[in-house]
Amino acid sequence: MSRSIIHLNIADFAVAVERSLDSRLKNRPVIVAMPGSGRARVFDMCDEAYGCGIRKGMPVFRAMSRCRDARVLPPRPARYEQAMNALVRQAACYSPQLEPGDGDGHLFLDVTGTARLWGSPMDIAWRLRKQARFELNLDPIWSVAPNRLTAKIASRIVKPRGEYIVAAGEESEFMAPLSLDLIPGIEHDDLERMAGFNLTLARHVAALSEEELSVPFGARARFIRNAVQGVDDTPVRMIHDHPPVVRLDHGFGQDAVNPERVACILYILAEQAGSRLRQMGLAAKRVVIRLEYVDGIRVVRQIAARPATASDASLAALARQTLGLAWRRRIGIRHLCLTCEGLVFPPAQLPLFEAPAVQRKNRLETTVDAIRSRFGRDSVQMARTLAVT
Question: What number does CATH give the domain 246-388?
């Protein structure tokens, strides 16, 4: 049985949510950007602003020069998250295989085999759109396809509004005339390399064998060839099957440009993450840092932990390395997020002859956890974190 994947996409999600709350913003250029900074960049914009030449990541002063009557609004992530959660609740009754995006208005829903309960996939998609319009005042694009990749590309084709259906067996034919920059996963470097070979459409790349593609693209050749042919076996995860993570963040009241202060905040976050991991009896295999600069640009970097760890010192060292990879621009940051992913149980077999230094460190962390749980986190502070206060 071929799969039936629905992709809902609310175009320009931040602007769409703002318009759903304020009808005066409809049919006029709207820009969402971080206020109070000369380096602020466009976070999101409506289709009218896009028609004026405004693009995401563009400096706000340049955007305003292209569209002087545009309304500039500050981003409100809490409202966007609330709208996204409401959309997920509407879709969850149709299938447990539901995978929302990261608060960006995207939603994948696998409705394979549910026709006897809810009707055809097209009926379900149409019903979801009607519910979103009536209950949330949002108008999502919808597409139905045999896999996630073609469903996502189909919704891009009809943006900013509409619907598209890709039937089973028509993936390659659907992909053939498309521009390569529409295909998720094909990066900017890939596009530049393809342009050097005069490859601009999916059918141009699909005509090449995997061996031929491996010359310029190496190990990515198989992925690229599958992508341009519309081949994707990635499943839609169960709504309650998302892997657990430990996520901690910090918002800076003022633009953070002092590296020492940022390092102190990062160490505090690493301590809190380590404490939570030890309470859960788990260890992290990856440390992820997400930065948001004062101009609205976001950067995400990660480093693997070998072996998995829940130690404060190890997590802090990995976080510092990851921060060094992420913070490459010479401007301040507004938001810092530390995430520990790939949570696993520590090895059951303990080392027979553990180093005395490791034993002392483990006992110290356990003791500090006990003291803080009884007297509060401020009862024990590391000297390197005092600069924050």
Answer: 3.30.1490.100
